[in-house]
Amino acid sequence: MTAHATTENDGSAIITIDGISRKVIGTDINDARRKLTTLVADHAAATGMPVEFVSTEPEGAWSMIVHPSGEIEDNSSFTTSPTITSPVATATERTDAYPTRRSQRESFLTQEHTEEPAAKGMRGALGKIGIRLKPSQAERDERNDIAAVSQHWPGPRTIVIANPKGGVGKTPTTIALSAVFARNGGAGVLAWDNNQTRGTLGWRTEQGPHQATLLDLLPQVDTLLGTGAQSADLAHYVHHQTRDKFDVLRSKPTALATEQRLNTTDVDAIHSVASKYYRLVFMDSGNDESDPMWLRMIDYADQLVVATTTRDDHAEAGALMLEALADRDERAAHLAHNAVAVITQADPKATSRDVQRMATGFQAFTREAITIPFDPAMVDGVLRYGSLQPATQRAWLKAAAAVARGL
Predict the structure, then answer these.
(1) Residues 6+ positions from 407 with CB-CB distance below 8 Å
(2) Whether residues 38 and 184 fall in one domain
(3) CA dihedral of residues 68, 71, 77, 79 (deg, nearest 10)
(4) Number of domains in the chain
(5) Rounded distance, CA 42 to CA 70, Å?
């Protein structure tokens, strides 16, 4: 037995039950949903049979089963003819004629996982009026991605965002990934501008109550690594992102590269401080693969992220970098093979076909390739995760989950 309804945002609806149609007027769409569900429940109770209820709304369609008892469940879990498995086993099917008590007893510690009801979309809206449904697959996928980025790993992890071509989105990728992990997994996330040639991470993020850079932190490394140092001491040198909950260690883009030339020993020192005080370190890199800072960064990487746009030259530069790393040594080859490619649609005129072509290309030689839609909030100025469109936020969450799976 089925019931069909068409509901509008203004609360008006037409419902058909067993071929009989009637009009329902609600004060709004939620009121209409409540009245429609009540009608179907009354019909199920009167006939003593469950009713499959399908409602089409401006945002899409949803389906549920309404039982005579008034119970409502998601249609995907409804089975009209459950299969009964016989508990009788033949002698030949039994591997042990005298099973032990332990093998027969179910542990008291076994707990069944109870899934939280839907909180988003039409299913979530129904939950607000007392109709609790299971989440859609899309909501389940989002919850799984949030769980992936919310976990804490034993020991610090370093994530490197790289591509030897400039303008490919390395800095926005560093910011967005840092924000996702910090917002969901809590504090202890650092974004480090490992760039000697006018790195712009400091320009794209919020400035703290000072202008300190990694050049100011370097002379204090021994003090910060000492037993008397406290995590709050780092506030003199890093810039906390008040909304996105991570810290930024800036380079000094106003200085010439010759004025802030760092060597591998300096990178070692800064990384020692970063790994002592932070659980996740995201390193935004420069464009020179021969730079000692760049090479030392790769030595510390636990996960490599290749940032690129839909431009062919940007993608080719990222691919050539991976090929070079694959030939460098066994560890670098593993980083390249396990890399995650993040393709941002920087050009609003790029088509979905352009984006998919890049993703398909990188999927052939990386672990995962994630695409990010064009978003005006990513173009210029301070980049805040909350300013991004919902679809962009969801894409960055997916990218972050891909990174987490490699840690």
Answers:
(1) 153, 157, 159, 302, 303
(2) no
(3) -20
(4) 2
(5) 8
Range of the domain at 384: 145-404
CA distances from 291 to 149, 285, 286 (A): 31, 10, 9
Place of tokens 């009713």: 51
Per-position DSSP letters for 36-50, written without gaps between them: HHHHHHHHHHHHTS-
Beta 51-57 vs 2-7: how paired, if at all?
parallel
Do 120 and 150 lie in one domain? The reply is no
Same domain, 207 and 128: no
CB 341 within 8 Å of CB 348: no
Q: How far is 268 from 275, CA to CA, in rounded Å?
A: 10
Confidence of residue 331 (pLDDT cuts 50, 70, 90): very high
28 and 58 in a single domain? The answer is yes
233 and 224 Cβ atoms separated by less than 8 Å: yes
Helix (H) or strand (E) holding 73: strand 72-74
pLDDT tens per residue across span 76-123: 543 333 333 333 333 344 444 445 555 555 665 655 557 888 887 777
pLDDT tens digits, one per residue of 18-52: 878 888 888 888 888 888 888 888 888 888 888 88
pTM for this entry: 0.75
Q: How far apart, in whole angstroms, are the C-alpha atoms of residue 318 and residue 327?
A: 15
User: pLDDT of 379-392, one tens digit each?
Assistant: 989 999 999 999 99
Q: Is 39 exposed, middle or buried (0-12, 13-18, 19+ CB in 10 A)?
A: buried
| Type of residue found at 229 | A
> Are 210 and 351 spatial neighbours (Cβ–Cβ below 8 Å)?
no
Q: Is the pLDDT of residue 126 over 80?
A: no
Query: What does the alpha-carbon distance between residue 372 and residue 180 come to, in Å, rounded to a whole number?
Result: 14
H helices present in 5-63, as ranges: 29-47
Q: Which residues pair with 158 in a beta bridge?
A: 281
Shortest CA distance to 211 belongs to which of 245, 236, 230?
236
Question: Which candidate, 26, 24, 30, 64, places its Cα nearest to that of 44?
Answer: 64
163: helix, coil or strand?
Answer: coil
| Better pLDDT: 290 or 97 | 290
Q: 58: which 2 tokens?
A: 């401006």
Residue owning tokens 């203004």? 10
